Amino acid sequence: MRKLDRYVGNSVLLSVCLVAFVLVGLDFAITFIDQVKKINDQYTSGILMQVLALRLPGKLAEYLPVASLIGTLIGLGALASTSEVTVMRAAGIPLWRISLAACKPVVILACLGLLIAEFVSPVAEQKANLVDKLQAGKSESNFSISGGSWLKTNGDYVYIDAADQDGNLYNITIYDREGEQLKTVKFAQNATQINAEQWLLKDIKSSTFFDDHIETSQTEEETWTSSLRSDYLYLSTQEPDSLSLTQLNQYSRFLRQQGLNTGNYELEFWNKVFRPLSSLALVIVAISTIFGPLRSSTMGARIFSGVIIGLAFQNSLYISGRFSLVSSFPPILGILVPIVICLVAGLYLLKKRN
User: Fold this and answer.
1) Residues 159 and 132 occupy one common structural domain
2) In the predicted model, what is the mean pLDDT of residues 19-37?
3) Domain that holds residue 280
4) Tens of pLDDT along 207-246?
5) For residue 309, which of 69, 15, 76, 47 has the smallest C-alpha distance?
């Protein structure tokens, strides 16, 4: 029985890997063609290839659920076309055993994709963004952040013009409020973090607002109490899909403490967390169709069906997630509902085929 499990599993595994390679390759080629117009004397084709290559791990993790669906259709479909599945069933092997053998490699690949999304793709994606900005002239090499960023921390609104790779801040403007009333505006040339709750501001100019007049002052150094961390500033300049699960969780917690909207970051967090479950749900749907309407179909029909099912699932996942952002539903439900519906539908169809 173990030999049979390995045989079915290897067939599915090879098909999923092949489909993932094709999907990532097509994405690379299409993106290159779309971005080739950016090439000039400074932004060369080599730089563009480097940026696209750094983004490949993220694309691989993103495409794994759909690749698992299409790969399962191809792998099991090939066995069904040669009547090997029929022979297995005639030998008394239950459908659930064949399904389990097909699901094992997909679960392993899905967990591998989760590890890539946590440890590999965020580092590569953020490096790609930095290289892209450097070559486009939007950032300087000694600055990890430039171009300005707005944050809210401890009830104050803060504008930071730039931050270097050591976490030092430059040209900081702090808008100190008292209720809805603006109390003080402070401008500092630079700031260095002392500890988790304090920053040292240097070359400060302050304007304090009273009911009948404004007072200005200037000091060389001043301590600023704030829960702001330099890594949070860096995270604020990154798109949610380029952050790891740990970074998404940390930054969401920081935004929640400041009373700010965390929807986009929570949505991306749960989207990445539930990718293995998405892969499993799509594979179960694929297995149910192989033993059902696609049993005698051609390979082209199976691939076409897999693409249609994958697109329908991804679109429903996107729409449900975005709907949760504009409604009172938590983002976790926006991601989980389509996955659960797909999983329940696949299990129901599989039970009917048994």
Assistant:
1) no
2) 95
3) 2-136+263-353
4) 999 888 899 999 999 999 988 887 787 788 788 999 999 9
5) 69
Q: Residue 169 in 3-state DSSP?
A: strand
Contact 16, 75 (CB under 8 A): yes
Q: Is the residue at 249 inside a domain?
A: no
The token duo for 289 is 């169709």
Specify if 25 maps to a domain: yes
- Asked, for residue 292, whether it belongs to a domain, the answer is yes
pLDDT at 51: 94
* Same-domain check for residues 205 and 275: no
Residue 254, in any domain of the structure: no
Asked whether the beta carbons of 300 and 90 are under 8 A apart, the reply is: no
Specify the DSSP element, H or E, that contains 148. Answer: strand 143-153
pTM of the predicted model as reported, rounded to 2 decimal places: 0.87
Structurally, how many domains does the chain consist of? 2
Question: In angstroms, rounded to a whole number, what is the distance separating the alpha carbons of residues 236 and 265?
Answer: 11
Contact 15, 77 (CB under 8 A): no
Where in 154-197 does DSSP place strands (E)? 156-164, 169-178, 181-195
